[in-house]
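Here we describe the complex-level prediction in full. Unlike the single-chain runs in Section 2.1, the two entities below were treated as one system.
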Amino acid sequence: MFDYFLQQLIFALAIGAIYGLIALGYTMVYGVMRLINFAHGEFFMLGPYIYTFLFSGLVGLGGLAPVLDSAIAIVASFVIVGLLGVAIERFAYRPLRAYGRLAPMLSALGMSIVLQSAVRVTVGPQPVHFPAIVPSTPIDALGGMVTTVQLGILIAAVLLMVGLTLFVNGTRLGIWIRAASESWTTSSLLGIRVNRAVSLVFFIGPGLGAMAGIMYASYYGIMQPTMGSVIGLKAFTAAILGGIGSIPGAMLGGFLLGAIEVFGTAFLPILSFGYIGTEYRDVFAFAVLILVLLFKPAGLLGETVSEETTVAKKDY
Amino acid sequence: MNRTHILLSAAALLFASGAMPVLADDIVLGGSAPMSGAQAEFGQSQIDGAQLYFDQLNEKGGIKGNKVVFRPLDDRADPRQGTLVAQQFCDDSAVIGVIGHMNSGVTMPALDIYSECGMPQVVPATNPELMRMGFKTVVRPVANDFVQGALPAKYVTEKLGLKNAVLVHDKTVFGQGISGVFKDNFEAGGGKVSGTYGTNPEDVDFSALIASIKLENPDVVYMGAGMPQLALFLKQMREQGLKAQFIGPDIGFTVDFITQVGAASAEGALMTFQLPPYDSSAELKDFSDRHQARFGRAPGPYASLGFANAQVMAAAVEKAESLDRAGVLAQLHGVTVNTLLGPVAFDENGENTTAPMYLYVVKDGKFELIKQ
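The structure predicted for the assembly as a whole is:
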């Protein structure tokens, strides 16, 4: 039974890491702008498509060593999707800032449809095979079994998360972001260019989303234009679970949601003696979410927003 | 721009769009399948097959000297679009028969509309329920899912001697239905089903489920689901080292299945399909060559079915005393015809009495027919 538990834990960590990376994009944008960026799932979807385009382009041009080709393509996908995020914020969200919360949110929903349809029309709606970046070799670990791809996802995701934490807590640009999310008006009074912080957030969030997308496509071996919809919703759930607006909260929420889903599938039938099947997994996962929110409405690591800051946030 | 110019450009436009006027004594037959979207490959192949037969018929002078005009419409595999298409065919009194639709979920709501306007219908969809809803306007030359679930169950229990199965389905009408049929036949063949697991139709991660299936140690896994879920499940199953025999339904019978799983992991997987391979008989080889010549590409997965359905419809029109819906309908159920896919005759429900089903195995990155 311990082997079984360990095996499921590995699955939970791999999918949880991906949820966490996407959730970071939701939570950072919400933290700074109080906006739920519904287009975020599409950045996740764009990642593997842009990666494939670049990688096959590089290989077609003669290319370097395959490892170098894919490294360049990965970094370039981060930058391209990040810049796209910045552009979308600049042209689709910023002009609507003065019109309350609803207008930018609807604009985000529209962006999501635009991006998804654009890929569907240009590349086609069918699922496309995505060749694994790292060859998937199983490794025995303490009675469980972990593949090199899972290991790669976990390492890359944790590195990105640690990097982000160091960046936000230890650099000047990070201070901008934290200041802007603490209080928009005060930071601009103190000479912080809030719009730059916003652009920065819209570069990092979608970039991380694209990375998660590449990991995901490489893990399951396919990509399709609709892949961002369901997983985007789940990552959004993870962000709320951890406390939306909180960066460590998004990471925790991602791993937690992964664990709830995997252990729900693995143990519900066993614990209920077969009466509750695996098809109840999502019922179980979302019941847990509702329970958490009933007792901690701000999420696990979220701060309870005081009346005063809420008023201040409304002013942007 | 003077008047002549306008007239000329109008005429040019008419030719360019290919809008040929229907002559009074032409026979108009409708066809509908998904021709865009994820299932376009399957849908378009049916339309192409039917078109090929009607072309051939017209070369020989049509039916009773009347030219056949085939009018295909796209239903996008969407039930809402399907009912619109059905209404469109019904409203056009020139249309005296319809071949469609490809998907069971699209066909089901459309049946009502076709039956209301007395439209003779040849159905390519495979859900068993479709022919048991009491509509008198439909026939189905293709085998239904009772046959599709039964064949692999019989094969693994009798030929391979495998007795311990696990079922996975995606909770859809199709997926749950067909795994239920497999279960009944597998148990009738002396096998034991040690677990049934439901997933969501859009799930991509089956790793937790597969780990718990491993505890059951089955030697057969039957999966009633769509694509890419069939491919994802098998890929993850092999990654976890679960070596059980994998069996899937017709949706998985596509090259995408093998590329997405990877040829090595797909090796040995069984898949049921309603049609024989294009190189299995002289007629089919000839069909394949003519398809290549007419469209410039090899026939798609359902092309021969489209051709055979067109043969059935044409045979009913041929026998009709009057060239209208009522005349064709009177002959539809009694029609017997030797099609490209074998003889067709219908029972009281409109099901083909001898509809064949074929079992394929993945071998060296290709689907290969298993001889019965």
